[in-house]
Design a protein that fits this description.
With 336 residues, this protein is mainly alpha-helical. The chain has helices at 9-18, 40-51, 68-88, 100-111, 118-124, 128-142, 147-150, 158-171, 181-191, 207-220, 226-238, 241-253, 258-289, 294-320. It holds the Pfam family Haem_oxygenas_2.
Length: 336
């Protein structure tokens, strides 16, 4: 993966630094010019800092991952990002562990129908270019699917840990490369004529798309956010089956073959099972062991639901005005 193109003063200076061997540098953050969740420069900078903990960038020294100047910048970016999340996502009232399942279910039910139905549009009305745009957005996460939530495994024990491992094992194809969900998504991209290489479309996606992935990395890379990470994953699983069924039907309407649709079809079945494991065993077990963190579980779920709504609003608003939801017209297309 190449370093993305800069989107402002933060990323311009950060990427200049990353092009050299690790060294001390000072990069004060400018006063924000727009809300954090819409700030392309900040979201891309944070994405790049996090990516050093995943696969890194071609030509960037791996030692940057733990460079103290880089970590200091990441901390400053995270502080601003967490403030932005707190302003956009009201924190649900804390509940006793015994009431967590009901509170989670009510939170998801309240979010259902809150905002435009992107899944319904993709099923019934989207044209092929719009569906391809949607896949480009999702590729930023789906090509590393499960990785951010896996950070929680060594931070858990008992029933919650076993449940998370069970979910993640399915995400990683139970050890079979061709069944890994990231590989299934690559087949979807190839079926749509899109470049399926890791990180190929980062330059194309807007701040809100980056913010969705950055939220998972923020929660995953900080032990203090482990409850929020579990809530995020649970909300993801609880709201996945029906939209994926609609995505599959929409892609079939547009001529997508079974290989291109398999990613969505797999999630219809798998996530219906994962929902119960995530809600009862993972989140329930964690809250029973850590009653004071039950509210964090709900907050993580609320972040997942809110950001998904904001993403849908962004995409639908652009499409309703006849423009692209990506940062530039056209798409990066792979070889036929």
């Amino acid at each position: 993966m190449q370093l993305p193109l800069p989107r402002g003063p933060i990323t311009a200076r950060l990427f200049d630094a990353l092009a050299d061997p690790p060294h001390a540098f000072d990069l004060p953050l400018p006063h924000p010019a727009r809300p954090v969740l819409e700030d392309d420069d900040l979201q891309l900078a944070l994405f790049a800092c996090y990516e050093l903990h995943y696969r890194g960038f071609d030509g960037v020294d791996d030692r940057w991952e733990w460079n103290t100047s880089l970590l200091g910048l990441r901390e400053a970016l995270e502080r601003r990002f967490e403030e932005g999340l707190a302003g956009a996502v009201p924190r649900p009232p804390a509940v006793p562990p015994a009431q967590l399942r009901r509170a989670m279910t009510e939170l998801v039910a309240a979010a259902d129908g809150d905002g435009p139905s992107l899944a319904a549009f993709l099923q019934h009305r989207a044209d092929l270019e719009q569906f391809r745009e949607f896949v480009v957005h999702r590729s930023v996460y789906h090509l590393k699917e499960a990785d951010p939530h896996t950070w929680a495994i060594p931070r858990l024990h008992g029933r919650a840990k076993a449940a998370l491992v069970e979910i993640q094992s399915d995400e990683y194809g139970c050890g079979r490369l061709e069944r890994m969900h990231a590989e299934l998504f690559r087949a979807t991209m190839r079926g749509l004529g899109l470049d399926d290489s890791y990180g190929a479309h980062v330059d194309r996606v807007p701040a809100i798309t980056l913010a969705i992935g950055n939220t998972m990395s923020l929660f995953g890379l900080h032990r203090r956010h482990r409850g929020a990470l579990l809530g995020h994953l649970a909300a993801f699983e609880m709201t996945s089956s029906t939209p994926n069924l609609k995505y599959s039907r929409g892609l079939r309407r547009l001529g997508g073959d079974p290989a291109a649709r398999r990613f969505y079809d797999e999630h219809v079945q798998a996530d219906a099972v994962h929902e119960q494991i995530a809600l009862n065993d993972m989140c329930g077990g964690f809250a029973a062991d850590h009653p004071a963190l039950a509210g964090d579980v709900l907050y993580g779920a609320a972040c997942a639901l809110t950001l998904d709504r904001l993403f849908a609003e962004h995409v639908m608003e652009r499409w309703q005005h006849g423009s692209t939801s990506l940062r530039e017209a056209g798409l990066a297309v792979g070889a036929p």
